[in-house]
Amino acid sequence: MEISKETVFDEYENYSYTLDYYSPESDLEEDMHLGILHWISLMLYVLAFVLGIPGNAIVIWFMGFKWKKTVSTLWFLNLAIADFIFVLFLPLYVSYVALSFHWPFGLWLCKANSFIALLNMFSSVFFLTVISLDHYFRLIHPVLSHRHRTLKNSLVVAVFVWLLASLLGGPNLYFRDTLEVNNHIICYNNFQDPDLTLMRHHVLTWVKFLFGYLFPLLTMSFCYLCLIFKVKKRNIPMSSKQFWTILCVVIAFMVCWTPYHLFSIWELTMYHNSSFQHVLQGGLPLSTGLAFLNSCLNPILYVLISKKFQTHFRASTAEILKHSLWEVSCHGTASEQIRSAETKSLSSLETAQLSTLFPEISVESPCEPNNKSF
């Protein structure tokens, strides 16, 4: 059944702009200002996808398969998994914006896509908070950290973080819905009961703000500030690079997530005053794209700039390259292998003669694998 734009606007109490970006009062093709902002948000989505896929994949490969399992690698691995799952769904957001906020992917992908977005937001923020707490206790309270900082306890914390993030993101699986408006399908929050719509929207928004932004930000800021002051007071060795890394992490978190949560709270005023509707239409997609960038910044800030990771990455890359070149040089074309088989007996005879005449010379096939090299 087709529903007019006016009907949707009259029933605004049953509609949320959060991550929807569709307005019955505005034609995005005619509004150049909103069009520019939406194209900028589109570029942010694409940038997050292009940088987030390889960055998080590299972290998952090293942390999950190459490095020894430790508490620190477990945090980074889970953080990278959360970001990687999210960036895999980013093409859906890119298509949504590119199609002028038309959702052709069906109801269940609408629900799943929004749930994955909130799951990533909560899990990433929670793991960033856990990492800051881990840094604090490891340097400031080493005895307590050594007693309880075990891989088994860390696995329990990681499972708890995933369950809590799933619980907080779960309402999107229930409220998310699709609606056709003049052959234009939108993916939106359908709060269903008009009497409870305002309350439900407020609860979901403030839960996101408190648990997904304010409490984690205060925790990270407290841990890192105490860490810096205690390190200077106790003369605990701490490099300037580590200090700037910590500062960049907090700044990146604030820059990426502050506009999104501010616009989400501002959106609540639309129930009483729609005068800033166009500002929200342009600001929500842009702030969401900025928040998405945090998924590709996490591996860069936390892992890729560390000297340990760079050393292991260069060593592993060199090993892979050397092994690939060895295979190419030793496994030539089929004709070369046939010719090699025909001359094998002759080469063996010549090698035996050389070894007899010159025993001090070791004649070794260049394609014979050397265990010392790998």
Automatic annotation (TrEMBL):
PROSITE patterns in the cross-refs: G_PROTEIN_RECEP_F1_2 (PS50262)
Chain segments annotated as coiled-coil in the UniProt record: none
Subcellular location(s) of the protein: Cell membrane
Keywords: Cell membrane, Disulfide bond, G-protein coupled receptor, Glycoprotein, Membrane, Receptor, Transducer, Transmembrane, Transmembrane helix
Signal peptide limits: none
Domain G-protein coupled receptors family 1 profile span(s) in chain numbering: 55-302
Membrane topology: Multi-pass membrane protein
Residue ranges crossing the lipid bilayer per the database entry: 36-62, 74-94, 114-133, 154-174, 209-231, 243-263, 283-305
UniProt-listed SUPFAM superfamilies: Family A G protein-coupled receptor-like
Entry similarity comment: Belongs to the chemokine-like receptor (CMKLR) family.
PANTHER family membership: CHEMOKINE-LIKE RECEPTOR 1 (PTHR24225:SF74), CHEMOTACTIC RECEPTOR (PTHR24225)
Official protein name in the record: Chemerin-like receptor 2
Native source organism of the sequence: Cricetulus griseus
